[in-house]
């Protein structure tokens, strides 16, 4: 394998179509698309300072690398990329990629990142930014700490473990989401989503969990959450904490220690299709 060590490159497309190469301790200065149309690369100790570093690339291994603020829109239309122990400082870093595997990475500006990607693994990832993960699919997460609104809008087939989301409008318009041992805090959680399962999770959400079809909660805390389950159907909820209020669920079963207020004021709903069991009334 060819080795490029302690290099410096600038200008447009300096290593266009490079392949079967190991690039070590190298900086890519001002100039667009330094590694466009490349394949079978190993990058270690690299610094990207400018736009579009990895477009239309395949089979890329990245470690101990920095994507600086202006390396925006950095990784698009790329397949089979592994990044670990790296700092990702630019927005819009991943679009329309297949096979994205991230471990021990920090996104300081994750706005509009991981859009329309497929086959995504996130392990021990910290991210700050809005619209993270939009319209992506087949996502596996273990240890994501995300602060940013509208995450995973329109995403499909998501499995999450041991994570924390501080996010308004998280998981909207999704399909097939399962979240284990995690905390979600933010208004309007998961509206218009189909098949959402939460297991051993803690939820804080003003008007959270509404307009869902297929919502399952197992041993979950639902704290400071009001007007929950509005227009939800196929509910199967085992909640371990007091819920402030529940409003107009369509169908299913809710088991909860207590509810501050149950609001059933929509005459078009057959309220007999929903069972709400309160422990304090048993």
Question: Can you walk through the features of this model?
Answer:
The chain is mainly beta and 282 residues long. The protein is built from no helices and 27 strands. The strands form 3 sheets. The chain has an 8-stranded parallel barrel. Strands 7-10-12 form a 3-stranded parallel beta sheet, with no helix packed on it. Strands 24-26 form a two-stranded parallel ribbon.
Low-confidence runs (pLDDT<50, min 5 residues)?
Answer: none
How many angstroms does the end-to-end distance come to?
A: 71 Å
SSE succession: EEEEEEEEEEEEEEEEEEEEEEEEEEE
Oligomer: single chain
What key attributes describe this structure?
single chain; 282 residues; mainly beta; eight-stranded parallel barrel; three-stranded parallel sheet; 27 strands; 0% helix; 52% strand; elongated
Write the layout of secondary structure elements.
Blueprint: E1 2-5, E2 8-9, E3 19-24, E4 27-28, E5 39-44, E6 47-48, E7 54-55, E8 58-63, E9 66-67, E10 75-76, E11 79-88, E12 94-95, E13 98-107, E14 118-128, E15 137-147, E16 156-161, E17 164-166, E18 175-180, E19 183-185, E20 194-199, E21 202-206, E22 213-226, E23 233-239, E24 243-247, E25 252-256, E26 259-263, E27 274-278
Parallel strand pairs: 1-3, 2-4, 3-5, 4-6, 5-8, 6-9, 7-10, 8-11, 9-11, 10-12, 11-13, 13-14, 14-15, 15-16, 15-17, 16-18, 17-19, 18-20, 19-21, 20-22, 21-22, 22-23, 23-25, 24-26, 25-27
